Amino acid sequence: GAGVSQSPSNKVTEKGKDVELRCDPISGHTALYWYRQSLGQGLEFLIYFQGNSAPDKSGLPSDRFSAERTGGSVSTLTIQRTQQEDSAVYLCASSLVVAGGAGKDEAFFGQGTRLTVV
Amino acid sequence: DAKTTQPNSMESNEEEPVHLPCNHSTISGTDYIHWYRQLPSQGPEYVIHGLTSNVNNRMASLAIAEDRKSSTLILHRATLRDAAVYYCILRPYYGGSQGNLIFGKGTKLSVKP
Questions:
Q1: To the nearest whole angstrom, how far is the Cα of B50 from the nearest Cα of chain A?
Q2: Of A80, A83, B11, B67, which residue has the fewest beta carbons closer than 10 angstroms?
């Protein structure tokens, strides 16, 4: 079956340019998460969408970062005026949140977008 | 948010059991304990989760202390494929659904043949 799909898989951009990263979650999944992972580091939470609730944006590192989720499905992470420190792998995950569902809510991850800012 | 503490790294021999500890002394009553792992060059994958009772699945077992302030992920027979970073995560559960999924630094497990 289809998993979480991210595009592009690799992106090289010049410093100062804007980039858009796309995430197609598993169909029907109500929760969507964005993370970034710098080389050799752990996962840094960026933003969390859950159904119709206001997204948790507490992890966005600056106002250059924004994300939206249209129609409760596809999500786009936008980085404006990219900097070299934005270079990382950006990971997206989705999960089916089942009310009263014994707390599992397993998150499935995409393969990520490797962003390189030169 | 409640935090977890894990050793930075551990080593194991192939075919032997591995016990990966996690301390979470500030856990609240509505926090579930989740474990994920990240194999090299891949996204994380779910391993197991629990609330109060010990849990078993095809991948691992989760032993939860009676006071819930610590837990241990048990791999019964480590294989080379189990070499990964293992993350212990507390997820709040409220309003009938899970909260956010925040990763810490995890434990890097090395498996020697």
A1: 8
A2: B67
Q: What are phi and psi of A40, to 5 degrees?
A: 75, 5
How far apart CA A82 and CA A100 sit, in angstroms, is 41
Task: Determine whether the interchain pair A107/B101 forms a contact, defined as Cβ–Cβ distance below 8 Å.
Answer: yes
Q: Decide if B40 contacts B53 (C-beta within 8 A).
A: no
Q: Which residues pair with A12 in a beta bridge?
A: A116
The minimal CB distance from A104 to the residues B49, B102, B105 is found for B49
Contacts of A42 in chain B (CB under 8 A): 85, 87, 103-106
What are the tokens at A91? 């990971």
By the 10 Å C-beta count (0-12 exposed, 13-18 middle, 19+ buried), A102 is classed as: exposed
Residues B64 and A9: their CA atoms lie apart, in Å, by 38
> Coil, strand, or helix at residue A84?
helix
| Ordered DSSP codes for B26-81 | T--TTEEEEEEEE-TTS--EEEEEESSS-EE-SS-EEEE-TTSSEEEEEESS--GG
pLDDT in tens, A7-38: 999 999 999 999 999 999 999 898 999 999 99
A111 touches B at CB < 8 Å:
yes
Mutation site for A-interface testing, chosen from B101, B103, B107, B108 by largest number of A Cβ within 10 Å: B101
Report the C-alpha gap between B100 and B90 in whole angstroms. Answer: 9
Q: What is the C-alpha R_g of chain B?
A: 14
